[in-house]
């Protein structure tokens, strides 16, 4: 399979990924730039199954209706402290209720804006949930199609994983 | 000027209140769900409401509907991730004065507030 070479990975069109992924990538970029003022770079895109995240904090939100799946935003604790500092003006030193709230909101915004830009009617968004724990893992069902977006920013790396059932027999 | 900010996210309430402060509004009330928002509206004379859509107890649409049913015409801005056309139409029909989709930056919020805030 051809690997794209592009100056901005978000503009890449010939990667072996599902067309949905570009929407999730651009919405993630917009959420981080508008809410945090952070420029993020899509460093890589991979596919996987099974256990994925090995970060400290993960925000999860489910899709139902005409698209069934889950979006997971995972990062290191230090990155959430930097995000909280940008949002709230003070830097926490541990996972607080504000951190959980913040990660849930960011996940909700990425999921919500992606839902609206996918061009598919009838998608319902669930309530966000946040999992924290050093080196925890998040897994998808084996039947899920899983795409992983690997982002990089000044505060460190993070991933957005999208596990979904491909609708209408699409490949 | 007193503004009621209703959102189940404490972080989001802080962000909105910080933006309100930046345009000179310092008298704010917070509500963490739709019922709290309605109760706060009934207990306090507020001049404007910023409300989320998806909240526990009662959602933002129910909040707007109940407040408009009292005859109040105060500005209500819906601040939400719900951006599909049908939802915007439903919000307008319920009586919202303006609509701001998340994610937004401070300039987006200030532009909405400037339409209604007189300080």
Q: What does this entry look like structurally?
A:
The complex is a heterodimer of chains A (about 170) and B (about 120). In chain A, α2 packs across α3. The radius of gyration of chain A is 15 Å and the shape is globular. Chain A has about 170 residues and is an alpha+beta fold. In chain A, β6 and β7 form a beta hairpin. Helix content of chain A is about 30%, strand content about 30%. In chain A, strands 1, 2, 3, 4, 5, 6 and 7 form a 7-stranded antiparallel beta sheet that branches. Chain B has about 120 residues and is an alpha/beta fold. Chain B has one domain: Rossmann fold. A 5-stranded parallel beta sheet of chain B has the order 2-1-3-4-5, sandwiched between helices. In chain B, α1 crosses α5 and α2 packs parallel to α3. The longest helix of chain B has 13 residues. Classes of the chains: A alpha+beta (about 170), B alpha/beta (about 120). Chains A and B meet through α1 and α3 of A and α1 of B.
| Structural class category of chain A | alpha+beta
- Determine the oligomeric state from the structure: heterodimer
Largest contact between chains: A-B, 22 and 17 residues
Mean pLDDT of chain A: 83
> Could you spell the SSE succession of chain A in H and E letters?
HEEEHHEEEE
Residue stretches of chain A low in confidence (pLDDT < 50, at least 5 long) are: 1-16
Q: Under the CATH scheme, which class of chain B?
A: Alpha Beta
Q: What are the main properties of this structure?
A:
heterodimer; A: 171 residues; alpha+beta; 7-stranded antiparallel β-sheet; disordered N terminus; B: 119 residues; alpha/beta; Rossmann fold; 5-stranded parallel β-sheet; globular
